[in-house]
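User: Hey, quick favor. My workstation is busy. Could you predict this chain's structure for me?
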Amino acid sequence: MNSKDNANKYEMEFNNNWLITYSDMITILLCFFIIFFLFTSEELTSLHTVKESLNNQLDILSNENKDLKMKNDSLAAQLFGLHKNEKGQASTNDDFMTFLEKNNLQDQVDVIENERGLLIRFRDSVLFQSGQSGISQDGYLLLDKIGEQLQQVTNNIIVEGYTDNVPIRTKEYPSNWELSVARSIEVVKYLTETKGIARNRVSVSGYGERNPIDSNSTAEGRANNRRIEIIIAN
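Assistant: No problem, here it is.
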C-alpha cells in the first residue's frame, strides 16, 4: 500500500471517531433521562401519597373539631341555660351579677361558673368572727339577700367551708377541719330553717385547709383561703 492509501485510511478512521463519541454521548443522555424519569415518577408518587395522607388527617381533624364544637356548645348551653325554676325563670351568672350590683354586694361575694355549676364565694370575715362559727349580724343580712335569690332555683345546693393553714386548737374546734364543717352547717341551717329551702336539696362539706385558692404564705392569701362557697349544682 502506498503512502497515499495510508493517508486516506487514517483520514477515514479519524473522521469516523466522532461517531463513537457522539454515540456514547447519546447513550449517556438516554441513561440520564431514564434515571431522571424514574426519580421524578417516584417523587410524584411520594408527593401523591403525602397529599392523600394530609387530606386524611385534615378530614380527621375536621371531624374532631366538629365534635369539640358540639361538646362546647352543649356545655355552654348547660352553663347558661341551667338553674330554671318551675315558672321557667332562669337564674344564671348574669342574674346573680345583676342581683349583686342592685344590692351593692360585689365586694362581699364572687360569682363563678365552672364545671360543677354556679359558685357563690364568701370570705369568712363577711359571715363570721375570727375563729368562730356563729354567723355575724352582717352575715345574716347578706345570707338573707342571697337566700332570697336561692329560693328562685330548684337545683341542688352544696355548702362548703374552707380555712387557711394556720392551726386552731380550741376546746370547741380542735382543728380547722371541724371549724370549716361547723361554719358550713350554720349556713345550711339558716338557709333551710329561716329561708325555707328544702333540706333534701342541700348538702354540707368542710375541707379545712385543703383545696386552697391562694398562697398561705401571705396574710392576703390566707384571707382568700378562709371562705364559704355555695354551689348551685348542674
